[in-house]
Amino acid sequence: MLWARDKIAALMDGLRENAPEPEVRAAVVDLALTHHLVTKYTSLVAVDRAPARPDGAALKEAALPTNLPDGWTYDAVFGELPQGATDARLNLLVGALLLAAALLLAAALLAFGARRRLAA
Fold this sequence. Notes:
56% of the residues lie in helices and 0% in strands. It is mainly alpha-helical. Among the domains are: 2-35, no CATH class; 86-119. The mean pLDDT is 86.
C-alpha cells in the first residue's frame, strides 16, 4: 500500500512536468481502486449491505419519546409560560386589550375622517 501511495504521488508529480493529464488520471484511478486509496480522482464510500429487516417484513410506525437534557421539564419547554417576577398572563391580557383598543380607535378615526371628507 505504501508503494501504491508513492507511485500515485510520483504520477501526480508528473503533471507538473507536463505529463498528459488523461494518462496520469487513468493510471492514478487504476492504482487507487486496486489498493483502495483516496486520491484527487477517487473517493471511497462505505456501504452496509447487511439488511436492517427481513425482506417482506412490514414497516413499523411508533411515536418516540422526547429526551430532554438533564434538569429540563416537559412543561417548561412545551407547556405553559415560564414563571418570572411578574404575572405574565396579566401582562399578555392587558397588552391584547390595549392593542384591540388601538385598532378600534384607528378604525373610528378613519371612519370619522371619511365622513368629514364626504361632508365637505
